[in-house]
Amino acid sequence: MQQVDHLTTTPEAPPRGSSGAFVWVRKNLFGSIFSSILTLVICGLIIWFVPSLVEWALIKAVWPGAGADACRAASGEGACWAVIGDKWRLIIFGRYPFDEHWRPTLAMLVLMGTVLVSCDRRFWSARLIVVWILGMLVFLWLMGGGFGLTSVPTGLWGGLPLTMMLAFFGMVVAFPLAILLALGRRSSLPLIKVVSVVYIELIRGVPLISLLFMGSFLLPLFMPAGTTIDAVLRAQIAIILFQAAYLAETIRGGLQALPKGQSEAADALALGYWKTQLLIVLPQALKISIPPIVGSLISLFKDTSLVAIVSLSDLLLSMRQAMGDPVWRPFFVEAFLFIMLIYWAFCFSMSKYSQYLERTLETGHRRR
């Protein structure tokens, strides 16, 4: 046999002028006349707006520790961050007893720890259910009291802990219900399919605020005399039912995106219905549905502000109650910016985790 010499070649650099920062700017920012005009307009707005914003928010701002008089003196020139320093505990914790603020703080840390554990793929098994059950129980114990802690009625719960509870508890409980509804809507059994379709279309046909009103004002009318349901529990159930209907359609979209060959291969292996769904169909469908599922969670986190209509002091209402103080009332803009940053931090983190999951679970479904 002839011996073939393998020639080694050294990679050559790309032609001069075909790469680099200047080429990227010219291609993406000045690629056409319209793009060039738009780039110049945006740059002009940035040059005009950013220095004024920095001057107002940082240079001439009144920082925590100063009084309301200093803020009035700087009114119109600098931000009054002193209002955050004075009212941040009322904004974050609402009407929760002041001396017990360590409890909602610890409860939020427990809930965030549970969420972070859920983000670790090593815990994606049946034990994650146990983690969430324990996390929920500890959260409720810290917030409500009992077993050695002073009892705090749910009417005093508020602020960020209540917002986190309604959003994360709502999503965790609604998720398995949504999976059952999505499978039920695709079921070949007429009764199960009809029940699933009626539920999904009925709930999706009304706004969340309607369910909150029904749970808070209409449901007690049908209860036996002397029977009451906690207001926070009613709002939580309404959020769960609402979110489950929307998530069901999201998951059904992922199920329909899978080729029939997946189910047919499972049938060829003599797998039963539930094994096929749990081991083959649902893992792929949920992976495809990651972006809309996270989008639903982000929307739910922001929609929790609607519970203020049924007199629950979420983060937004707690801020408005804190700004009821006439001394600090003129500086409501800074308070709104403060809670805006809190909402943004949560939503941005969820969005980045969604992108991380899409990259790590990528197996060819995403278009490039």
From TrEMBL:
Signal peptide: none annotated. One of its GO terms (biological process) is amino acid transport. PROSITE patterns: ABC_TM1 (PS50928). GO terms for molecular function: transmembrane transporter activity. Its main location: membrane. The chain crosses the membrane at residues 29-50, 102-119, 126-144, 164-184, 205-225, 327-346. It is found in: Cell inner membrane; Cell membrane. It comes from the Bacteria. Keywords: Cell membrane, Membrane, Transmembrane, Transmembrane helix, Transport. Pfam families: BPD_transp_1. Residues 160-349 form the ABC transmembrane type-1 domain. GO terms for cellular component: ATP-binding cassette (ABC) transporter complex. It is a multi-pass membrane protein. Belongs to the binding-protein-dependent transport system permease family. HisMQ subfamily. PANTHER family: INNER MEMBRANE AMINO-ACID ABC TRANSPORTER PERMEASE PROTEIN YHDY, MEMBRANE COMPONENT OF AMINO ACID ABC TRANSPORTER. This is Amino acid ABC transporter membrane protein 2, PAAT family. It comes from Arboricoccus pini.
